[in-house]
Design brief:
3-stranded mixed β-sheet, 51% helix, 5 helices, alpha+beta, 12% strand
Length: 180
């Protein structure tokens, strides 16, 4: 056992944006951690709540200060050395979430940058059979990045389409009742 991560809960609940993040953390994040535990690996050791085996931290080289999301990096380093990370939903910590859209955007951009760094740094997991227990989590992370790029591309396409007067979802109408 290398580490145990817990269940972060939102403490500042006064804005609409914070309430959306309550939903995110109570349902999506918790569900994701449980699903990843079934796969046998956890993508991220939550930076806000966790406990580590000290000898395991030293063995993997501690946190990487060059990483945007050092909690993800330490998770991968531990698991590549075959340390187990567990999720304990009863280990609760109350945390502050970004109260404004601008701060939330900066946080999520940092998370996205960190995930890209993780995929680059730990891409060797897909090349070595001994890391096969990390394959589902690596694939999930890769699909997450692909989904984000797809969503941004579609949003951009729709925005441009609407701005030039072309509605991509509108059905075409046939003239004079003839075939189209």
């Amino acid at each position: 056992m290398g580490a145990v991560t817990g269940n972060p809960k939102v403490a500042n609940r006064d804005t609409f944006l914070a309430k959306l993040q309550i939903i995110e953390f109570t349902s999506i994040v918790s569900l994701l951690k449980r699903a990843q535990r079934v796969w046998g690996r956890i993508l991220t050791m939550s930076g806000v709540v966790g406990i580590f085996r000290l000898s395991a931290l030293f063995e993997v080289g501690l946190y990487g200060p060059e990483m945007a999301t050092e909690d993800m990096d330490i998770s991968w380093k531990l698991q590549k050395r075959f340390y187990d990370i567990r999720y304990e939903s009863r280990a609760i910590v109350w945390m502050q979430v970004p109260p404004t859209f601008a701060r939330l955007w900066r946080q999520r951009m940092r998370w996205a940058k960190g995930l890209a760094q993780i995929l680059r740094r730990h891409g060797d997991v897909m090349k070595k059979m001994r890391y096969r227990r990390l394959w589902p989590v690596y694939i999930e992370a890769t699909l997450s990045v692909a989904w984000a790029y797809t969503a941004i591309s579609l949003f951009t396409f729709w925005t441009i389409s609407y701005s030039v007067g072309y509605l991509p979802s509108a059905p075409r109408r046939c003239r004079n009742g003839g075939g189209c």
